[in-house]
Design goal:
Growth Hormone, Chain: A, globular
Length: about 400
C-alpha cells in the first residue's frame, strides 16, 4: 500500500471538513433522487411522453444500465485526472441530462438522457468514498465517509417523496428542473469548498484483475450482493408486503419510518466504524435477519411491521459506509477501481431484487419474502464471519492510511 498523507491545511487533525463532506453527500443525494424520481411519477411521465407505463418505467432501467456499464471503464479511464475535475464532470453530467429530461418531449431522447445520467452516477459512486477518505486523516476516514454517505438515506426518506409530490403538483418536468437547479448550486459549492487532489500516476495504478483478486475484495463484494439483494427485494416490493398488514394506503408513512431509522443508522455508524467495523456489519446482518424471520409470523400486525421497518432502516443506514470502508481498506491503492466494482454489484442487485422479488410475488406471494431475506442475510453473515484475515478484520482500523 502506498503511504500518503493529507496536508494539515486540508484536513486538520481534530476537525472534519464538514462543508466539503456535505458537498459529497449532496452529490449522493442528487444521484439517488435522479435514479428513483421516475418511479413516483410514472403516470405523469407516461402521459407526458405518450407511452405506456411499462415503457415509461424503462427510464429507470436505462439509468441503471448506464451506471453498470460505465462505472468500471470510466473509473479506470479517469484515474490519472485531478479528482475535483472528475467530480465536477459527474455533476455537470447530472445538470445536462436532467435538463434534457425536463425539456424533452421525445421518449427516445429522454431514454438516452436517462442512460447518460446513469453513466454520471456510475462514475460518481466510484469516486465519492475515496474522495472523502483523502480529505481527512486516517483515523477520521470512517466518520468522514458516514457524513459523505448521509445523502443516500435522506434522498430515500425525504427526497423521493418530496420530488414525487412536486411532480404531481406542478408537473414531472418541473421535478427534474429542480434537480438541475440543485446541481448548479452544487457546482458552486464544490468549487468553493471541496479540495482538489491529484490522480494516480501510472506506476500507482493497479490493473482491474489485480484489484479484483486482492485478498478481501471478493468477500466484501459478495457481502454487498447478499445484503443488498435482500434489501432490494423488500424495498422494491414494500407496497404488496405491507398490504398484508392493511397498510397499502400508508406506504409513504412506512417509507418515512424506514428513512428515519436509516438516518439514525448513519449516526451510529459514524461512531462505530473506526473501531468496530467488523462487529457492526455482523450485528446489522444478524439483526436484519431476525427482523425478517419475525415477519414470518407478524407480517399481518401493523405495529410489528412499523417496528420491523424501523429496525430494518437502522441496520441499512450505515451499510454504504461500512461496506465501502471495508472495500477501500482491502483494495489499498486500487480503492477507486474496487469501488467502481461496488457500483456494478450494487446496481446489479437493484435489478436482481426486482426480478427475484417479482418471481416470488407472482408465484407464491409476498409472505415468502421473509424466508428469502433471511437466507440471503445468513449467507452474508457467514461470508463476513469467515473473512477475519482480509475484508472484515476485527479491531480498530486506525492503522489504515489514506490512498
Amino acid at each position: 500500500m502506498t503511504h500518503s498523507t493529507v496536508s494539515t491545511a486540508e484536513a486538520p487533525a481534530d476537525r472534519l471538513p464538514i462543508s466539503a463532506l456535505l458537498a459529497l453527500a449532496m452529490t449522493g443525494f442528487v444521484c439517488i433522487v435522479t435514479e428513483t424520481l421516475p418511479a413516483g411519477l410514472l403516470p405523469q411521465i407516461s402521459a407526458g411522453l405518450d407511452v405506456s407505463a411499462s415503457l415509461a418505467g424503462q427510464t429507470v432501467t436505462a439509468y441503471a444500465l448506464g451506471a453498470v456499464l460505465a462505472a468500471i471503464p470510466l473509473t479506470i479511464a479517469t484515474r490519472g485526472w485531478r479528482r475535483r475535475n472528475v467530480l465536477l464532470l459527474t455533476i455537470v453530467g447530472f445538470l445536462v441530462f436532467n435538463t434534457i429530461t425536463a425539456l424533452s418531449s421525445n421518449f427516445w431522447l429522454t431514454l438516452v438522457a436517462r442512460f447518460f445520467a446513469g453513466v454520471a452516477t456510475g462514475l460518481a459512486w466510484s469516486l465519492l468514498a475515496g474522495y472523502a477518505r483523502r480529505m481527512v486523516q486516517p483515523h477520521q476516514q470512517g466518520r468522514a465517509m458516514a457524513i459523505a454517505m448521509v445523502g443516500t438515506p435522506i434522498a430515500l426518506s425525504l427526497g423521493v417523496p418530496l420530488g414525487s409530490w412536486l411532480g404531481s403538483a406542478v408537473g414531472w418536468r418541473s421535478a427534474f428542473g429542480v434537480i438541475s437547479v440543485l446541481t448548479l448550486v452544487l457546482i458552486v459549492w464544490v468549487l468553493a469548498r471541496v479540495p482538489d487532489f491529484p490522480g494516480q500516476t501510472g506506476r500507482d495504478r493497479m490493473a482491474l484483475r489485480k484489484v479484483f483478486t486482492t485478498p478481501g475484495v471478493r468477500p466484501v463484494l459478495a457481502t454487498v450482493m447478499a445484503w443488498m439483494l435482500a434489501h432490494n427485494i423488500l424495498y422494491t416490493y414494500i407496497a404488496p408486503f405491507v398490504a398484508q398488514a392493511g397498510l397499502l394506503d400508508r406506504v409513504d408513512v412506512v417509507l418515512l419510518v424506514f428513512g428515519i431509522g436509516a438516518l439514525a443508522g448513519i449516526g451510529l455508524t459514524g461512531r462505530l466504524v473506526e473501531r468496530h467495523l467488523r462487529s457492526t456489519v455482523l450485528v446489522c446482518l444478524a439483526t436484519f435477519c431476525l427482523v425478517s424471520l419475525s415477519f414470518v409470523w407478524l407480517t399481518s400486525v401493523p405495529a410489528a411491521v412499523y417496528v420491523g421497518v424501523a429496525v430494518w432502516g437502522l441496520t441499512f443506514g450505515g451499510a454504504a459506509t461500512l461496506l465501502q470502508t471495508a472495500l477501500a481498506d482491502a483494495a489499498g491503492d486500487g480503492a477507486d477501481v474496487a469501488l467502481s466494482m461496488n457500483v456494478v454489484a450494487w446496481n446489479g442487485v437493484i435489478a436482481g431484487g426486482g426480478v427475484l422479488g417479482g418471481i416470488l410475488l407472482d408465484r407464491w406471494g409476498a409472505y415468502t419474502f421473509p424466508w428469502a431475506l433471511a437466507a440471503l442475510l445468513a449467507i452474508g453473515f457467514v461470508i463476513v464471519a469467515a473473512s477475519r484475515t482480509h475484508g472484515f478484520r476485527p479491531g480498530a482500523r486506525t492503522h489504515v492510511v489514506a490512498h
